Amino acid sequence: MDVNALRQSCPLFRGISEEDLTAMLGCLSAREISPRRGDFIMRTPEVHPLMGVVLEGEVEMISEDYFGKKSLLSVLPVGSIFGESYTCVKAKNRTIAYQARTRCRILLLDYERILHACKLVCRFHHRMIENMVELIAEKNLALVDKLEVTSRTTIREKLLTYLTRQAEATGSLTFTIPMGRTALAEYLCTDRSAMTRELARMKAEGILDYEKRTFTLKEEA
Predict the structure, then answer these.
(1) How many CA atoms within 13 Å lie on the side-chain side of 151?
(2) Three-class SS string for 166-216?
């Protein structure tokens, strides 16, 4: 494992030297896996005191209800952490799955050892915990954004709210979203065919333009 590259690409290890990180990975029982697209990496309520870090590719966070209906909660890019919340509260009544959206490289860490410093008391253990808290806060904000989008009444309102957030994030009216039509419909909690028809109507009305995943919002939108 390239520890220096890990430091640069993963915010969880920000501010930790290469030497200290090498020792810390041993303390945390770190191991790397390479799931293929569609493979499940973690799934609650299975017992797994693990936290994942996305080193390459993308991971989908999926919620599944009692009847088996799935909802896309988030797409996690490189540098993201996952599994920490449901491992921490030991959730038993909610099915949350983490699935490889693309071919991935994932670093798995022992969550219990993250929360409780080892007997050697790694010098930068507390710095890593601070980084983790920041990442959890960022994830919470992303889920709040999703709630704001899905709480809209109509498909058009959901689309415009989501696309406006993407434009704001990139600072441009032209941007590329991180998901295809099927994943977008799941994220918006709506029917894919109905969403596609609504997009076509919005394009015809001059509200927006798009080509595959690249969208352009018109000024008057």
Answers:
(1) 6
(2) HHHHHCCCEEECCCCHHHHHHHHCCCHHHHHHHHHHHHHCCCEEEECCEEE
Rounded to whole angstroms, how far apart are CA atoms 61 and 183?
Answer: 11
CA distance 134 to 128: 10
Q: How far apart are CA 80 and CA 139, in angstroms?
A: 9
Residue type, 163: L
For 221, the enclosing helix (H) or strand (E) is none
3-state secondary structure of 164: helix
Query: Which pLDDT band holds residue 209 (cuts at 50, 70, 90)?
Result: very high
pLDDT of the residue at 52: 92
| Distance between CA atoms of residues 84 and 111, nearest Å | 7
- Kindly state the helix (H) or strand (E) to which residue 141 belongs, with its residue range: helix 125-150
**Residues near 203 by beta carbon (within 8 Å), at least 6 away in sequence:** 209, 210
Whether 187 has a pLDDT exceeding 60, the answer reads: yes
Is the CB of residue 124 less than 8 Å from the CB of residue 24? yes
DSSP character for 142?
Answer: H
Amino acid 46: pLDDT = 62
Q: Give dist(CA 133, CA 53) in Å, integer.
A: 14
pTM for this model (two decimals): 0.74
